[in-house]
Hints:
Elements (H helix, E strand, L loop, with lengths): L5 E2 L6 E3 L14 E5 L17 H11 L12 H4 L47 H10 L8 H10 L1 H11 L6 H13 L7 H6 L7 H13 L14 E2 L15 H4 L8 E2 L21 H11 L18 H12 L4 H5 L8
Parallel strand pairs: 1-3
Antiparallel strand pairs: 2-3, 4-5
Helix pairs in contact: 1-6, 3-6, 8-11
Amino acid sequence: MKRSVYLLLIGSLVLWGGTGCRKESTRLHPVTLRVPEGFPAMEQSLSNLDLTVEGIALGRRLFYDKQLSADVSVSCGTCHEQRAAFGTFEHDRSHGVFNSHTLRNAPPLFNLLWQKSFHWDGAYRSLTEEAVQPLTGSTEMGMDFERIKEYLQSDASYRESFKKVYGTWFIRPELVTNALSQFTATFISANSRYDRVKQGRAQFDSYEQAGYQVFQRQCASCHTEPLFTDHSFRNVGLPIDPSLRDLGRFQVTRIVSDSMKFKVPSLRNVSASANYMHDGRFATVQQVIRHYRYGIQRSTTLDPALQNGLTMSDAEEYNLMQFLKCLTDSSFLQEQRLARPN
Length: 342
């Protein structure tokens, strides 16, 4: 990486201060993100984000601003709720403007700098690239950047913020997506009970430990620690919803072997982020596990590891669910600096 990244001090995800600043302004306060203990190297580069306290604050305001939607009814934060690890809370598919529904369940947003691609089908490769689609999608926020610019330019406080952060009065699309990306880059979740156990600061109880063993045998090949995803795309044997006809990764690559494959989601915060799967068809973690035990639908692109489903007893299922609860990072779900601004 071009930029120095240091180990995370748990509970302090960003450091305010630093010696560098932009040429446009001496009033900005650079931010250094610290890598959580045990995490691998980041997949996304920080060099183009140029993180600052002021840029993150601007991105936070944009993230929660419903005026950025065509009917002023939704914001990024409407579908990506903090209480659900910035996913869609207890709902299947996300709602968009004018009472529309999106094709998919909005995935939780955290540890984005460690992702290789974004969205369920991996259509986008960078934070700034993926930020465009929700803003302009007809069933999401339904805007275009000309209208976004007009709104932001008409607001004196926004004009001042963009001038301070970017050194220009002219609000361009890339500045909007950069600010949003600065904010979401700080969504780092690494303070769960699991993390504290790995750091020697806590212990699993007997059920959690037994569930961890089940996880390692049955789930870890796809949901690889410590991120609890291997970033791959897999067909996990879900029947196609005939009303949606969503073929997943195939719709990006047009490669037949990618049909019905979706990105493997992280299991961090899984107990808080219902609903589940790309279309939110399952309301509980138990329903997801039962699918893998009994509901696998065979097809030519089904992941080989799931040809016979997952074999486990009811007791093992219970223990697995107890372990998965250990992946909840309560501090992340309640972190005030990520919440809607007052």
